[in-house]
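User
New here, explain this?
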Amino acid sequence: MSNGLYASCDVAAAKEVVCAHEASHPQLVIASTILASTLAFIDGSVVNVGLPAIGASFQADVSDLQWIVNAYLLPLSALLLLGGAAGDRYGRKRLLITGVALFAVASLACALAPNLPSLFIGRFTQGVSAAMLMPNSLAILGQSFSGEAKGRAIGIWAAVGAAAGAVGPVFGGWLIDVGSWRLIFLINLPLAAAAIALTYLFVDADQNSDSDALDWIGGLLATAGLGVTTWALTQGSAHGWSMFVAAVLCAGILLLIVFVLFEHRCGDKAMMPLALFGSSSFVGLTLLTFLLYGALGGLFVVVPYVLITAGGYSATAAGAALLPLPLVIALASPIAGAFSAKSGPRMPLTLGPMIVALGFLLMLRMGQGENYWRDVFPAMVVIALGMALAVAPLTTAVLMSVDPSHVGAASGLNSAVARNGGLVATALIGSVLVITGPALLSAVAGAAIAGALACVAASLSAFLLITAS
């Protein structure tokens, strides 16, 4: 999944942080946060393009390919809120440097992995470290600027994130074609080294004010619940459902229920304060984010895989096939933002997912993608236009949907929900990836229809639950 498309969800985390004092080296602070965030932005999308090559190298089955993606998304989804709270508690600069260093070590482990279990461990560690570096890089950006300077800094960060989301899959595909899939992990090392050096030298020292204990139990329950549930969905979709898999799924759901009950007991000290869900608008935005980004998560795994395995595309061409998404979103978002400012967030958040649903239906023409401009390009452009209309007002809507005391938790939770959508979608697409030959195209059509239905449900969530402005 292209994490670069999550930039709009994450921006709120920077906006809500109060500036402690202006940065002494503002441009270098921006550079350090961009380099750190880029590690997490490009990793998911680049790995998606590399799945066929990794699968061939390790003779992996479909569930193995799903876990190459979800071993990263699982800890990122479950621990993102905890990573931000840890930065408040122990220091954002310290957590950023630690997270980036751990990401570099994990990337090296992935590049050198001799077998699939080693690769899974490396990917899981990447996810843990991304949950540390993502919220703290944005918090540093927010605490280092104020007023118009903060807006400009966030704009630069978002623009570079979009560019990374565009270039990452193409560059990663080229590395796979000319060398090996292992190179897509090694490119993280110089980025990490530069991010650590700039952060250490030019980000001001931490000024910690949060002495509250961290919700470690909540983090562990969320990770365990999501992990068990994801395993069951992955096994069921790839290999069929059995009584044992169904029982594991029930156990995972039970763990998630225990997590919710524990968070209720923790009140405002929870990593996911349940008071947020007292707002119908926030509930609608949460459902919209989960469904819309879930559909996108499936798209970013299925399309490159099908184009490479069934369409005969090179990894570079498969990565380039996704280029219209970040490019069109970057170009159309300012127009969509102006429209949202006039109409309020409810209308664009209703129309945007409906347009994305139309784009998914256009995927029914994709076939093997023999003619890219006829079979693939139209669907990518329409999906991108719908996403541009939806993502522009999303951050503003999240910030407006809760009271000021919960703004930080709401923005962080919205980012986590977006990743969870991709996590669940990737777990469910095994029934598509397991098929070969002509039947694969029918399976892709079924997945496209499922994605369209998810987007329609996202649109209805906005229309029925978001309070009209």
Q: What stands out?
A: The first helix runs from residue 7 to 15. The CA atoms of residues 25 and 202 lie 6 Å apart. The chain has three domains: 1-208, 215-270, 275-469.
